[in-house]
Write a structure and sequence with these properties.
This protein is mainly α. It has 2 helices and no strands.
């Protein structure tokens, strides 16, 4: 076989059915080979997209955590400033002991409200962290699934190479049989 031209050594032409069968086999081989290459390209694109999505999610998670921390710090600062100003004004205005007791009770109430607000903010932060952990777990699960799929594809490629080798051996046997005739 040379440059797509097939001939016997004794110059006899191959039978037409043999030519069609061999061209069909080569066509099937080329289609399978092209399909494997396309599958590899598709998988590489999908893996790149997944890694970009993972990076985007990580950046978004970090941004959300920073925003929550800033919000908590700002809220705490504003509340402390407001409480300090209220306390300063009430201290100036308060003359009697009764007003001081009312003020103390109000401050305790506000502290409790603030503690509740801080607890709610902590719950929100924890919920966001749990959501991000779940998303990360999902990404890891998808990554493992892709690894399993990759192994399956590698096994399929190995089987196709084995099939290719066996087909080549069969073609050689056919050629040897035809050479004997």
């Amino acid at each position: 076989m040379n440059c797509g031209f097939h001939s016997w050594i004794d110059k006899e032409e191959w039978p037409e059915t043999m030519k069609r069968a061999l061209s069909r086999l080569w066509g099937m081989y080329n289609e399978a080979h092209d399909g494997r290459i396309n599958d590899r390209c598709d998988q590489a694109i999908m893996l790149k997209q997944l890694s970009e999505d993972k990076q985007k999610l990580q950046k978004k998670h970090d941004s959300l955590l920073d925003d929550v921390k800033k919000f908590m710090d700002e809220t705490e600062r504003k509340v402390l400033l407001e409480n300090y100003q209220k306390f300063k004004e009430e201290r100036k205005e308060s003359v009697a002991e009764q007003k001081k007791e009312e003020h103390t009770a109000a401050l305790k109430n506000e502290i409790q409200v603030l503690k509740n607000a801080v607890a709610k903010l902590k719950e929100i932060l924890k919920t966001q962290a749990d959501v991000m952990k779940a998303k990360m777990q999902k990404c890891e699960d998808e990554k493992l699934a892709l690894k399993d799929e990759k192994k399956k594809l590698e096994y399929m490629i190995f089987d196709l190479f084995n099939a290719k080798d066996s087909l080549q051996q069969k073609v050689k046997k056919i050629k040897a049989i035809c050479d004997d005739e």
